[in-house]
Design brief:
mainly alpha; single chain; Hyaluronidase domain-like; about 160 residues; 5 helices; two-stranded antiparallel ribbon
Length: about 160
């Protein structure tokens, strides 16, 4: 299930295994400079193509690429706003998943903990995401009891794509 029709990069970047997407001339995004988002608010997440693409990338284990897409939203939201901090938390969770895949479990746990701390306390849903479900899923994954977490956006059902 996808939230956008945008193509995925030709490969998932994994440090030490694949070319750096931007710095390496063979990288999948070499020479590409994304246009900055004008704004991103907690109200426009369901219509923000970059956010939805970031979630698609996350759900298909493009951890580094998800980080890059979500960072565009983070900057546009304002890094220290509640929305910005939540996005920073999602970025750190994507990094945690990448580090876990690389075998750096201590770093993965630390990044996940730092990311989850950015979620507003007592808020059950933010930007279409069940914070409780994501907390549970990331913990189960890092304990080796579940596959990498996926994010199902509630309220974006009109945007679902197959493929």
């Amino acid at each position: 299930m996808r939230y956008t029709n945008r193509d995925f990069p030709g490969y998932r970047y994994i440090p030490g295994r694949t070319p750096h997407p931007v710095r390496d001339p063979d990288g999948h995004s070499h020479g590409h400079i994304p246009a900055p988002l004008e704004k991103f608010t907690g109200e426009d997440w369901a219509t923000c193509e970059e956010y939805l693409y970031g979630i698609d990338l996350f759900n298909h284990r493009y951890w580094w690429e998800a980080h890059e897409a979500l960072e565009q939203c983070w900057v546009a939201a304002g890094r220290t706003t509640a929305t910005g901090l939540f996005l920073q938390g999602l970025i750190q969770i994507a990094v945690a998943c990448l580090k876990y895949e690389q075998g750096f479990t201590d770093v993965a746990w630390r990044m996940a903990a730092e990311g989850l701390q950015k979620f507003p306390p007592g808020v059950e849903w933010m930007l279409g995401i069940s914070t409780g479900n994501l907390r549970r899923d990331i913990h189960e994954h890092l304990h080796g009891a579940a596959p990498p977490p996926g994010i199902r956006l509630e309220g974006a059902t009109g945007r679902l794509h197959t493929g």
